[in-house]
Write a structure and sequence with these properties.
Residues 518-527 have a biased composition (Polar residues). This is Protein ecdysoneless homolog. It comes from Caerostris darwini. Residues 490-532 are annotated as: Disordered. The protein is an alpha+beta fold. It has 28 helices and 10 strands. Strands 2-3-1-4-5-6 form a 6-stranded antiparallel β-sheet. It has a two-stranded antiparallel sheet with strand order 7-8. The chain is elongated and about 105 Å long.
């Protein structure tokens, strides 16, 4: 997809199209976009405060002048794809609260939301036809159909609508652009566990770290991913800094609790590293219960050392960029007031230790999410250096706090057991197959055709009756009467002397050369008549099929395969030889009906139509990608 060619690997870009007070997207001003950005970030600040990002946080900035006015964010999620889906959740959340907000999101794979819902997409959707057609609006995914007429929106020579036209189409024709239920479910099932998942995907671990590391992480937890990344991607030059440990000497280590994401914890714990013994790292034996805490603390301290060492040379150059004048920044004051109104500061007294910690985090977030656009502009190593200067580490107090630590979380989630694997496979097996879908469609139509109908309409079908889960009351006498009424059906004699029908058998009851009692004789005659009537009806139907088979209508029907003809049509091998020489093949009713349904459904191109309306009334749904 062309739109994804400029996006870096493992990076997601999201665009928010806002409307001003007049409902206009094209004339919204720069100041109005700033207010919208602060409003949106403030609305989701409660989620953002709890989340630990792998690399870049959620951020919003005003798009460059000259483009269709909108807010834009860029986040590199690297190895943790959950960051990307958390952003999807945030965007759906915002679109539910601002009913005029239209959102587009893509990553380096293009329309990754469509990839997630691939099993339910219309056949026409592919990377070449979906550009500028996929948006989030009012809490749902919308796909602009390919068949929109020129008066409903303009496209370029490649059939790609412009962003302004696409946003206008979504606003004006949202009932037609809303994606199918299957697509909606596929996306929302992926994000349904948020925001609970924020805490579920965290991992608390005991780490034996230099006290300065513990203080820095308490002041600014957002530095943790950068320290893990620095150690994870270390090179020979970084290892020189780890041998020196100039900033984080191991002699001041304390046991503390550190909260990771599962991805960060796995990255750190799975790294193999033997520290230089001359540095002062004295790790316990492998069987020691604190061995894991010592290893994690050593690796994390090395990551912080790498950050601080690499930032030392940049300290003087970039120091001016870090020192931001918040006192004269009107946007910051407006943003801080919004946070306060939403309870961000938790009723802490202004100037208290906790208040100052929250204020520092809010300023860092403001710089990374609103002022600069991405966290790359605030070097994490420089932040470490500056926090080192202001850190007030009380070694004795921290050693005393070790006694009150909670037990760490179990990390058995890193091991895939056979039972977990079987459970994952079972979930995949339980997904509906095409065979089951075909069976459901044809069965539902049969149920509908066999339902009772009167002037008020058709009575509820078996599908809807099953949903009521009522017990079946079976009346054998009523069932027998119903069957007898069916069997009493009569076919008039044919006037055609040349007919091969055996209808004359109706008047030949006396020819039965069997001696029976009077009662049994009566029952036998009735039974014989009924059997002959059914046989004659079948003869008429077979003859009609043979006559229609030679017409254009008959050629349009799907036929049973030759191997199945003898068995399924129950053809008598000793029947008239002319019946076998005429090349007649019985009609495959189920396949013919299914083919017509799929052809009609495909011609709708995702829009409402007769087939979707009929099937929805029966409680059925055709998957958009079911191949005929």
């Amino acid at each position: 997809m062309a739109a994804s060619m400029d996006i870096s690997e493992n990076t997601v870009i999201y665009k928010l199209f806002c409307a001003n007070n007049d409902g206009n997207y094209n004339t919204i001003s720069h100041e109005e976009l700033e207010i919208f950005a602060e409003k949106y970030v403030s609305q989701i600040s409660g989620f953002l405060r709890r989340y630990i990002w792998q690399n870049d946080p959620f951020n919003l900035r005003i798009a460059e002048p000259g483009s269709f006015p909108h807010l834009e964010g860029v986040t590199t999620f690297e190895d943790n794809v959950e960051d990307e889906w958390f952003i999807v959740y945030l965007l759906f959340y915002l679109s539910e609260r601002d009913r005029n907000l239209v959102i587009q999101i893509q990553d380096n794979d293009g329309e990754f939301l469509l990839i997630e819902a691939a099993d339910s997409l219309p056949n026409w959707v592919d990377p070449d036809t979906s550009e500028n057609r996929v948006f989030i609006y009012q809490g749902d995914l919308h796909i602009i159909p390919k068949s929109f007429s020129p008066e409903e929106g303009t496209t370029n020579r490649n059939g790609i609508p412009s962003l302004s036209d696409a946003v206008s189409i979504i606003r004006q024709f949202s009932s037609r652009t809303k994606a199918s239920l299957g697509v909606q479910n596929a996306i929302k099932n992926r994000i349904k566990d948020y925001p609970m998942k924020i805490d579920e995907y965290k991992h608390r671990a005991h780490c034996y770290v230099p006290c300065a590391v513990a203080v820095i992480l308490k002041e600014d937890p957002s530095i943790l991913p950068h320290a893990v990344k620095a150690f994870y991607l270390r090179d020979p030059i970084d290892l020189k800094a780890c041998r020196a440990m100039r900033y984080f000497a191991p002699e001041t280590r304390v046991m503390t609790e550190i909260t990771f994401t599962r991805c960060l914890y796995a990255q750190l714990s799975c790294q193999k590293y033997e520290p230089d013994k001359m540095t002062g790292w004295n790790l316990p034996s492998d069987k020691h219960p604190d061995r894991k805490a010592h290893e994690l603390g050593m690796k994390l301290a090395c990551g912080f050392e790498i950050l601080a060492s690499n930032a030392h040379k940049k300290m003087q150059v970039e120091d001016d960029d870090v020192e931001h004048d918040f006192s004269s920044d009107v946007r910051w004051k407006r943003f801080a007031k919004s946070l306060k109104d939403k309870g961000y500061f938790r009723d802490e007294v202004e100037g208290s230790k906790m208040y100052n910690t929250l204020l520092l985090q809010a300023k860092e977030f403001y710089l990374s999410s609103l002022k600069h656009g991405t966290s790359e502009n605030v070097n994490p190593g420089i932040r470490v250096q500056k926090l080192l200067k202001t850190a007030n580490a009380n070694y004795e107090e921290m050693k005393e706090a070790e006694k009150t630590l909670r037990p760490p979380d179990d990390d058995n989630w890193m091991d895939i057991t056979p039972e977990i694997l079987d459970s994952m496979l079972d979930k995949m097996r339980n997904q509906p197959t095409e065979a089951n879908i075909v069976k459901t469609l044809t069965g539902g139509l049969k149920s509908f055709m066999s339902s009772r109908s009167d002037i008020e309409g058709v009575e509820p079908t078996l599908c809807s009756q099953k949903k009521k889960k009522q017990k079946i009351n079976f009346d054998p006498d009523a069932f027998t009467d119903a069957v007898n009424k069916i069997l009493d059906f009569r076919i008039p004699n044919s006037d055609d002397d040349g007919s091969s029908s055996s209808m004359s058998g109706y008047s030949d009851d006396d020819d039965d050369d069997v001696t029976l009692g009077e009662g049994n004789q009566s029952k036998f005659n009735v039974s014989s008549k009924k059997k002959k009537a059914l046989d004659d009806m079948q003869d008429y139907m077979d003859q009609m099929d043979r006559e229609l088979a030679k017409t254009s209508i008959g050629c349009s029907f799907e036929k049973l395969p030759p191997t199945a003809t003898m068995e399924e049509a129950d053809i008598d091998l000793h029947s008239d030889i002319n019946d076998e020489e005429d090349g007649f093949q019985p009609v495959d009713v189920d396949l013919t009906v299914l083919k017509n349904i799929l052809e009609s459904h495909s011609s709708q191109q995702g829009l409402p139509g007769p087939v979707s309306n009929l099937l929805s009334s029966l409680g059925l749904e055709v998957p958009d990608n079911l191949d005929s």
